[in-house]
Specification:
alpha/beta; 2 domains; Spore Coat Polysaccharide Biosynthesis Protein SpsA, Chain A; 12 helices; ten-stranded mixed beta sheet; about 20% strand; about 325 residues
Amino acid sequence: MPADNASWTACEFAPTLPAGDSQRSGRNPEAMSVSDRDLVSVVIPTHNRRERLVRAIASVKRQTWPDVEIIVVDDGSNDGTFDCLKAMAVGDCVLRVIRNEVPRGAAGARNQGIAAASGRWVAFLDDDDLWLPAKLERQVGLLKANSSASAVSCAFFSKAPLRRPRIVRVNPDVTEQEMLKRNCLGGASVCLASAQVLKTIGGFDATLRSRQDWDLWLRLFRAGPILACEEPLAVYNAHLGHRIVNDLSSHYVGRRRTYFKYRRLMDDETRKGHLAALLYCRMVLRRPRLPCSLAMLRRIFDLAGVGGSLMYLKWHASSRLAGRGRRHESS
């Protein structure tokens, strides 16, 4: 095994538990096998979010679907996460821990989890998100009833500081062009997919700094039908800590890479929409002087059309007001 990667499972170093304790932890170890057709492998990548991770794992433990293994990939944490995981794994044959001394990024960590998965299905959970108890049961039920489907998503609650939670619906009944325009299916935490399909399409694209979930949904969409539960079954936490979605530079790099990856599949309208978004990101990142900024905005409006132009005008006005507020506070 490479020096920068280590893997532990509770069954490798923990004493054997009485049958009752094993069942309370989720599964009887004697019943676990690679060929178990009802097993769901839950992959959780994590990096320096120990307290949030414990809550995420607890939400998996509360699932009403009984056949679950949890694979946590600690991607180079230095906040005590790994020691916490090792302590949690003692006596728990449901929890498996993989440790990367050198971080590989969320996509690389998820791919390690996919490779280690024993289940028929693989579900993903970000370490700062949560699941409602019926999440896996509802999604597995849909996939078992539709054997040709490649994956299933679900509605979810979106929580942000100082805002009331809202329900976000997903829509799998879309065309390929609609999928190419935007992510219609949510983030990784709502995805449950066939393990076989995931391994066939190569898992997540580890070259992307952002938009990894959108890229995965696109390839799953091309591999087979995608289903969705209308019931909200996950909680997306838009907290104030570091998230890729809050990093405009990473967003720009990821969006640019996915644009070049899929542009040959896009029609003219879809290409223009992506170019408008990329130009806007670049304008915000570079903060050009007013004449250049106005010229870039005109180009963005030409690409985005009427509806898109109104959206970018609103964003630009909001960002300028926020910038003035920050300058006033610092003066």
